[in-house]
UniProtKB/TrEMBL annotation:
Keywords: Copper, Disulfide bond, Metal-binding. It comes from Campylobacter fetus. Belongs to the SCO1/2 family. One of its GO terms (molecular function) is metal ion binding. The keyword Hydrolase does not apply. This is SCO family protein. The lineage of its organism: Bacteria, Pseudomonadati, Campylobacterota, Epsilonproteobacteria, Campylobacterales. Pfam families: SCO1-SenC. Disulfide bonds join 60-64. Cu cation binds at residues 60, 64, 149. SUPFAM superfamilies: Thioredoxin-like. It comes from the Bacteria. InterPro entries: SCO1/SenC, Thioredoxin-like_sf. The keyword Nucleotide-binding does not apply.
Length: 185
């Protein structure tokens, strides 16, 4: 009987340790070190606000402006502007300087910040988030190249915990997912 009790105590402690380590690894997976117009930041720098992270670039002709408009419209309609920050990650390290990128993000939503990564950190972050992008050469174009990219938004609670990836970007779904984030987390 004592052996069973010891075994149960061991299993309980081991399970707790596993869950704690797994939780910490999950938070680390989505953490980052980036540059903003105000200096170096990490996910923790935005604690206290809900976060919506989006990967894009300033010269994007369609997907980025559409997605940022969709998200900002939902936030404005929900009247939760002060509690949410949009983290706009530039995928175009060659053309997007930090100032113009930040102005671009703020054009759509004032509580936005542009995050710029080093090449290696951008590769790590996009891999960890499951975001896809590719530089596409545009022969005979003034733009020289474009950036094909996925368009999901990533929702985080006020403590920087990943809540959900939203890939169905209909207005109704985005608004509902943001509302659920604020209501339940």
């Amino acid at each position: 009987m004592k052996k069973i009790l010891y075994l149960l105590v061991f299993v309980f402690i081991a399970s707790g340790a596993f869950l704690l380590v797994n939780h910490k690894l999950k938070i680390f997976k989505y953490d980052f070190e980036a540059t903003t117009v105000n200096g170096e930041v990490s996910m923790k720098s935005f604690d206290g606000k809900y976060k919506i992270l989006y990967f894009g670039y300033v010269f994007c002709p369609d997907v980025c402006p559409t997605t940022l408009t969709l998200v900002s419209t939902a936030l404005n309609e929900l009247k939760i502007n002060d509690s949410v920050e949009i983290l706009f990650v530039t995928l175009d390290l060659k053309r997007d300087d930090i100032k113009s990128c930040d102005e671009f993000a703020k054009y759509f939503y004032p509580n936005s910040v542009c995050l710029r990564f080093s090449d290696s950190e951008l590769d790590r972050v996009t891999k960890n988030y499951g975001a896809k992008y590719q530089i596409v050469d545009l022969n005979d174009s003034v733009m020289e190249y474009s950036v094909a990219h996925s368009s999901s938004i990533y929702l985080f609670d006020k403590k920087g915990r990943f809540i959900k990836e939203v890939s169905n970007l209909t207005y109704e779904n985005v608004k509902s997912q943001i509302q659920n984030l604020v209501k339940n987390h």
